[in-house]
Structures are given as C-alpha cells and as structure tokens.
Amino acid sequence: MAVPVLIIGAGIIGCAIARELSARGVHVQIIDDRPVAGGATQASAGILAPYIEAHDRGLLLDLGVRSLALYDDWIAAVSGDAGVPIEYRRPGTLEIALDADHAADLRRATSGGNPQWLDRDATCALEPALGSIEGALFVTTHGYVAAPELTAALARAAEHHGATFRRSRAERIERVSSHLRVVTASGAIDADRVVLAAGSWTGALAGDRWAAAPVRPVRGQLLQLGWQGPPVTRILWGPECYIVPRADGSLLVGATVEDVGFDERATAAGVRDLLDAACELLPQGWGATFMNVRVGLRPATPDDLPLVGEGETEGLVYATGHYRNGVLLAPLTARLVADLIVEGKRDPALEMLAPGRFASRT
Question: What predicted TM-score, i.e. pTM, was given to this entire model?
C-alpha cells in the first residue's frame, strides 16, 4: 500500500514539513540515510535575520519577514508537541561597520525592521568586547534558534502526530501507474505524494528535468568557540563573518562560502579565515577555546530563492534550495507545502518559487 506522503530529507525543511502535515492528520514517512539534522542543518548557526540577508527589497525579504513573524507561535507549538525546550532568542543583530565607507552604506539601509544606526560609542556600550569599529546598524527583531535542537524537536513532534522515520538512502524517483515509487538502498517505497527536501542532493533524485540542474552545494564551515571575554549578548554581523552568542556562553562563528562540489571536509584555510574575521570584531577571540568546527553543504540556486511547489512529475513536490535561509524559512515553507498538499491552496509566492522557473535555461 502506498504511503500518503513520503518526504526525502530529514533536515530542518523536511522535518518542518513532516510535523506540519502530521499535525493536520496526514500520514507521513520521512527517509534519509543520515540522522535527523545530519546534513547542512547541523552546521547552521540558526540566524533569523531577514533584514540583513536581503537588504534590497524583493521576494527573499518578503518571505523572510513572513516566516519570522510565524516563529514565536511556531516554536511554542513545536516545543509543546515534542515536550522539550528549544533554545530560541531574539536579542537583535548589530551589523558592524569597520570603516567609514561601510558605515555610510549602512546608514542608508532603510529596508525595514526598524533599523537604528548606532555610532562607535553607542555600539561599544552595548557590546564592550568589540574592537575598533565605526558603528553598527541595530535591528531589534532579529534572533536565532538552535537549529539541530529545533530539528530534533520537529522530528519528535512529527512522531507524536504519527509520522515515521526510516534510515535509508533514496536513489531515484519513478512514476508507477497512479503513484510514485522511491527506490532506496533498502527497497522501494510507493507513495501518493513525494516531497523532495534533499537539499544539495536534489539533482540526483529529481526524476524530472525541471530541477535536475539548478541546485548546487555550497560548503559552509562553522566554528564554536569557548568565549573568555566580556559577555557578548547580541548577534554580531561583520563584513567577513557573523558571531552568535549561545545560552551556554559559547560563540558560533560562521560561515565560509565555498563552491567545492560535494567536498564536506573542514579545512585549515576555512578555520583560519573565520578566526581572523572573528578576531577583527572581537580582539579577545584569540584567547577563546577552540571547541569544534562543523561543515554543511548548503543547497543554492541561481537566483538564491528556494524551489517550492509542484514538479513536472505528477505527485512530486519540491521544498529545497533554501541556501543560507533554510532555518529562517522553515515555518513558512512547511505551511506553504502543507496548504498545497492538504487543501490544494497555492500561495501567490509559489509562482515565483516554482521549480520549473529554470527549465528554459537548462
């Protein structure tokens, strides 16, 4: 018997969709050859900052703002379903200017979010550990969530509503009579609908020409440091790195942007570059404890917008290509996909996110 919905991918997007669908009464199975949050999600700092990620007005900013507005209620609901706390804070971001030219650019940034320009003295009064800077753009609505922790909670919440998880590697998707068949390393699974949330591996699985080409892996390395200096309380965003203060006192420093294919190695060069950038912002960083480095392959598209919506193959739905914004866009993506599958409702945004938008280019 075919399962109603099979989701390929147990990262934050796949697990968010699984929880949303199962909470609406849909029987869902999720497959991945890695553990929950075992891919790009485990190397995410979980930043929720649409006004930095998309300074210029456009669809990405609109999507980010919509999704951020869902976060408070979403986290409360997921935590309640899963029965576990989730580290989630909204301390704001300080986008740091190190020189006068960058400061002038930031002063002109008026893309919403109630940004406030702070001069050097005002910025350093908020964050005394900062080094030599010109000032910062302060957005109070921004925050972060512990992405692996959230994804584990989403999986647990989905299971609470009846979803099942299976560790297996999906190899291809086929159309068989009235349903889809996903061939895995441990056998075939038939499904009425398949949601492809496989991130950088989308092209190898897609099964139709629409999305086989556009999604490419971009390596991101993320450091965790044991901070020994004055407390850092807000997210710092510099020209070459960002720094996220965690509840345990450690700092996450990210992230490299490397077009190296499917190479998931941590590198000396990546670690060095991030440490140099972090210590330019926080000079006492050289005295921090090096705790670990994580690596993830972020799924990017040519226009930096995700692929969300129906594929060329009947019954196939895409939810992939979120690049640096998977955590930010997770609640909105889950809602868009669930509305499409359960109610047949097509949000206007899906037209711009359609997987077929690159078909004429490939």
Answer: 0.95
